[in-house]
Amino acid sequence: FYESVYKNTRSKFDTYVKKGTLLHNYAHIFELLSRLRRSADHPYMVIHSKTNTDSSQKSFSFPSRSTGTSDVCGICQYDIESLKECAVSNCRHTFHKNCITDFINEKNDEGNEDDELLPTAGGNKKKGKKKRGKKNEVIPDCPVCFQPLSVTMELHGGSDGKSEKNSDTDNNEDESSLCVICFDNKRDALFMPCGHLYTCMQCYKSLNHRSCPMCRKDIHKVIRAANSSDTTPDTTYSEKQMSSESESNEIAKKTNRSVALIGRQSILQRIKLENFASSSKVDGVVEEVQKMIKLPLKKGEPPHKAIIFSQYTDMIDLVDWKLRTSGIKAVRLVGSMPVKERQSVLAAFRDPNVQPPIPVILMSLKAGGEGLNLQEATHVMILETWWNPQVHNQAYQRAHRIGQKRPVFAKLFVTQDTIEERMHELQEKKQLIFDGAIDGSAKAMQQLTEEDLQFLFAR
C-alpha cells in the first residue's frame, strides 16, 4: 500500500521538478509528504481521511471493504447500526443502549454496596441491613471523558438509511431525512434532552422559542448531526469486485446508506469496525503497552503508565480503539476538548485508585507537548518523527522532570523503509548541528560533514 502511495506522490513531485516550480509549491509538497507519513502510520488514514472523502479535493481513491458509516459505542467499541440502538450523552459520546444501561446499573450496584457498610461507634464499618424501597441512584461519570453523565436514551427522527427513495421528487431526496419545517434541508439538529431529530439547524435558529417543535419541551443543548452522504467517499470498485450479484448488493448497501451521525467526528465513523485491519505500527504500540503493564513492581510502587504522542487525531482514534478492544483502558487529550473535560481526563489518569485502572493517555503533540506535569508516567512513546528534534524533547519532559523519582523510558516509532526513516536521519543531523554549536561537543562536531558546516556559517 505504501509503495502505491509513494509512486503516486513521487510522480507529482517529479512533475514540479521538471517544470521548475518546486519552490513555488510548498503547500502541495507538504500535502504529498503528509500523505506518505499518514500511510506509514495506517492505510486507513489515507483511505478514510477527510480530504479523501471530499470529492472536490480527492486525488485518488482506494476500494476498501472497511468503508462504513456509523457512530461507535464508547463502551464496547463497535458500530451502532441505527438510531434505535443509540444513546447519546450530554458530552456527545455515543453508546449502545444496552451497554450504557448495564454500565449505569453496575455503578448503582457498587454505590449501594458501599452504602451497606455502616460506621460503628468504634469507627469501624460493618454490614447494615438493606433499607426497603428504592435504591439510591448514583450519577456515574462518563466512561469516556469522566464528566458527570447525562444520557438521552431515546432518539427519534433522523434516518437509518432503510426508507425508500421517493422517485417523484426531482432531486430524489429521502423524505424521512428532510426537515419537517422547511422540507428543503436535511435533518441535522438533535435537541437535548428530548432526543428529537426532525429539523435542520437553519430552522432551529429561526425559532422564536427555544422549545422542541415536536414535544414542546425546553431545549438545553443542540447537537449538529452529520449526514453520512456528506462523509462517505464515492468508492470506485473494479469489475472483478462487482462480479457477483451478492457482492454488488452488499457494496450498494454500504455506499447508499444515509445515516445521521450523532457522535463527535472521528475516523472510526467512516470505518466498518467488524472488518478492521490493524497496521504494524498500531500493533507495535499495543505490544509495547502490554509489556509495560507486565513489568514487575517494587513493594508500594505505583503501576507503570505511558504517555503516547501523535501528530494526527486520526492516529489517536485508531490507537485508542485498538487499546480498548485489547482490554487496555485509555484516555485522550486533544486540542478540541473543552477545558473541564481536559481537567477530568487528567485527574482520572493521575488517580491511582480509579477503576478500571488507566495506564495510557493519548495526546496530540500540540495539545500536550508543553506545560503539563505527568510524573505518574514512566514511559513516553512518540508515534511520528517531527521536523524539529526539540519537539521530541519537550514531549519526553512531560514525564522526565522535577518530581519524577523513577526512570523514564522514551521510545520513538519509525516504520522501516518509509519516509519516516529519512526524516529520522534528517532530524539526527539537525540534532548534531545543535549539539555541536550549543554544547561544544567535539564528538558531535566530528560527525558533521563539510556541507553541514557550510550550512552553519551560511548567511
TrEMBL record:
Domain RING-type: start-end pairs: 73-145, 179-216
- Keyword Repeat in record: no
Gene Ontology terms, MF aspect: ATP binding; ATP-dependent activity, acting on DNA; helicase activity; hydrolase activity; zinc ion binding
Bias (Polar residues) ranges: 228-246
- A single GO BP: nucleotide-excision repair
Classify the source by domain of life. Answer: Eukaryota
GO CC list: nucleus
Domain (Helicase C-terminal) ranges: 281-449
Print the keywords alphabetically.
ATP-binding, Helicase, Hydrolase, Metal-binding, Nucleotide-binding, Zinc, Zinc-finger
* Listed Gene3D superfamilies: P-loop containing nucleotide triphosphate hydrolases, Zinc/RING finger domain, C3HC4 (zinc finger)
Q: Which PANTHER family match?
A: DNA REPAIR PROTEIN RAD16, TRANSCRIPTION TERMINATION FACTOR 2-RELATED
Q: What is this protein called?
A: Uncharacterized protein
